[in-house]
Amino acid sequence: MNPDPGLTSYSLCAVAAPNPINNINMSASWLKSLFNLSISSTAGGSSITGGSSLLSNSTIGWMTTVRNASKKASGSSRNKPGRPRGKHRGIKKRDGTWVTKGTILVRQLGLLFHPGLNVGIGSDKTLFAREHGKVVMTTEKMNPNWDHSFIKRFYPDLQNQDVPIYKTYFHILAESPKQTFKLVDQI
User: Fold this and answer.
1) Paired sense of beta strands 165-174 and 113-115, if any
2) 79 pLDDT more than 50
3) Judging by DSSP bridges, how do beta strands 37-41 and 62-67 pair with one another?
4) Cβ-based neighbour number of residue 95 at 10 Å
5) What percent helix, strand, coil does the chain show, rounded to 5?
6) By three-state DSSP, how is residue 74 classified?
7) Which of 55-59, 82-86, 90-94, 113-117 has the lowest average pLDDT?
8) Which runs of consecutive H residues, i.e. helices, occur in 118-185?
9) Closest to 93 in 3D by CA, of 101, 103, 105
């Protein structure tokens, strides 16, 4: 059983006293001073008694845990599977709808719908209302100015053809302002 689940590898180092009976070259006095031992000889053999316990600071039975350098494995950061969110493009306000100034009429990627009367066009080709009023959609024959950079960009393949180009325009028929002001005669 691993005592610390965060450790990926560890080593146990055990330090124990050498057996003085098997090692003849070691002197008893050196062992006494090093390990605080009492060595006694009897007729039946030798016995070693230690003067320390496992909880003391001595080296007999002392075990230490050494943690080696390691790095935990981490997950990869890649894009989540699936499709990206939709851009919500398309016609937002239909023909006959009453809109206020600044209302978005169409969100489009290219130039499918063109701005007409009282309609502005944004940098991303979004059509919006410039005045309060009623939305009117019309399909009209387009007679573009072929020298304009905007027309060259969107209609380069239609320049030398005799086929008429029909496009859908969005218009805002502005409501007539109410005549609430009255002239006051000066006295």
Assistant:
1) parallel
2) yes
3) unpaired
4) 12
5) 5, 30, 60
6) coil
7) 55-59
8) 149-154
9) 105
